[in-house]
Design goal:
Blueprint: E1 17-21, H1 38-42, H2 44-52, E2 56-60, H3 77-87, E3 92-94, H4 100-107, E4 114-117, H5 124-127, H6 131-138, E5 143-146, E6 168-171, H7 173-187, E7 193-197, H8 206-212, E8 218-221, H9 226-232, H10 247-259, E9 263-265, E10 270-274, H11 282-287, E11 290-294, E12 304-308, H12 310-321, E13 325-329, H13 342-354, E14 357-360, H14 363-372, E15 380-381, H15 385-392, H16 398-401
Parallel strand pairs: 1-2, 1-5, 2-4, 3-4, 5-6, 7-8, 7-13, 8-9, 13-14, 14-15
Antiparallel strand pairs: 10-11, 10-12
Helix pairs in contact: 9-10, 12-13, 13-14
The structure holds adenosine monophosphate.
């Protein structure tokens, strides 16, 4: 890696104040109980490394969207308790991330001690990347480590601004791992390399598709976004999701695919649902909707495509079985509703059975794999949905660019 890594600074940690950005944005239930500590445990290797090498570790993170207000609902206090439990050692909690309180706590730290700062997003200055705020954060540390891949696509005070005030800024183990696996896809993927893209929106994925067209051998498109492409091909799509302002973009993408010899595979049949057109929650209406499978690619008016059909599943599985590298982001249908989850789950199972290098870009595809208990069968499941997609667009993430060059 071109950037300084945590291993490179091993001998410099002893007795130093090490300010580390982590992603402790954990899910909480309505009683503020942490429902998954995966994000905390994902940074344990970096945390333990600093402790074992005699650093004084100051951790900082965001949690939820408190929108610049000090709101106890979004306090990281519960995370400090959980982290102490996972580490089997005391974690001191600072009720503020800047000012006197953290300064006093940090000044009293001994080698191997751990302090967790309160939610960075209690200040609007964090997301605004305010230089004064970044400077205050930076004043707490001698060395900076970024292990928060999930926010590396954002130029915030704690991910980017802070690096202007600290001389040595390194990538943590989680960050390094993400960059290694995602980087391999862009640099030297084993061929054939295919990307599987799904989810609701084409607009979110245009930049990724544009970059992938230069790298992959084929792109499988499923989920709601496939209907804009089918519409662009002149198919009838009934009431399916369609971004009418992106039909021309879809046409251009398919043309570029032809020019670059990249196959673009679309669904050839569907599971369709007919819903009550009145007001109400989409998911609730969909759960009760009438549905059927249509073994062709045209959809009648009044019906909406909500999953890929069985012939499409077979077609996509066949492509997957012949691939050596696969990148997957986005569900093939409304997988949250059981009767429309088959397409997504079958793709997950096909990836697990493929023997290919499989990299999954977080978000819904990661949760589908978790439900299938197949996450361990993937080469890598990214911890950052948004960050991994921006990485695949081929631009350097601000939180990575800001780190010190080797
Ligand atoms: P995205 O955030 O764009 O990755 O979209 C994820 C969402 O797309 C999930 O909540 C899915 O339920 C939804 N989705 C997938 N396929 C469809 C479809 N055919 N129609 C409507 N929504 C879909």
């Amino acid at each position: 890696m071109a950037k300084l890594s945590i291993d490179d600074i091993k001998n410099e940690l002893k007795g130093k104040k090490v300010l580390m950005r982590v992603d402790f944005n954990v899910p909480l239930d309505d009683k503020r109980v942490i429902t998954s500590d995966k994000r905390i445990s994902a940074s344990l290797p970096s945390i333990k490394f600093v402790i074992e090498n005699g650093g004084k570790l100051i951790l900082m993170s965001h949690l939820g969207r408190p929108k610049g207000k000090k709101n106890p609902e979004f306090s990281l206090d519960v995370v400090a308790v959980k982290l102490a439990e996972l580490l089997g050692k005391e974690v001191k909690f600072s009720k503020d991330c800047i000012g006197d309180e953290p300064k006093k706590l940090v000044d009293s730290m001994k080698e191997g001690d751990v302090v967790l700062l309160e939610n960075l997003r209690f200040y609007n200055e964090e997301e605004a990347n305010d230089p004064e705020f970044a400077k205050k954060l930076a004043s707490l540390g001698d060395i900076y480590i970024n292990d928060a891949f999930g926010t590396a696509h954002r130029a915030h005070a704690s991910t980017e601004g802070v690096c202007k005030f600290i001389k040595k800024c390194a990538a943590g183990y989680l960050m390094e791992k993400e960059l290694k696996f995602l980087g391999q896809l862009l640099e030297k993927p084993a061929k054939p390399f295919i990307a599987i893209l799904g989810g609701a929106k084409v607009s979110d994925k245009i930049m990724v598709i544009e970059n992938l067209l230069n790298i992959v051998d084929g792109i499988i498109i499923g989920g709601g976004m496939a209907y804009t492409f089918l519409k662009a091909k002149g198919r009838a799509i009934g009431n399916s999701l369609c971004e009418t302002d992106k039909i021309d973009t879809a046409k251009e993408i398919m043309k570029k695919g032809l020019d670059k010899n990249v196959s673009i595979y679309l669904p050839i049949d569907h599971v369709v649902a007919r819903m009550d057109g009145g007001p109400g929650d989409f998911m609730e209406k969909l759960k009760k909707a009438e549905y059927k499978e249509v073994l062709r690619d045209d959809i009648d008016d009044g019906w909406e495509g909500v999953d890929i059909g069985k012939n499409t599943i077979e077609k996509f599985k066949n492509i997957i079985s012949k691939s050596k590298t696969i990148f997957w982001n986005g569900p093939m249908g409304v997988f949250e509703v059981e009767q429309f989850s088959k397409g997504t789950f079958e793709i997950g199972k096909a990836l697990a059975a493929s023997g290919a290098v499989t990299v999954v870009g977080g978000g819904d595809s990661a949760s589908a794999l978790k439900k299938l208990k197949l996450s361990d069968k993937m080469t890598h499941v990214s911890t950052g949905g948004g960050a991994s997609m921006e990485f695949m667009e081929g631009t350097e993430l601000p939180g990575v660019a800001a780190l010190t060059d080797k």
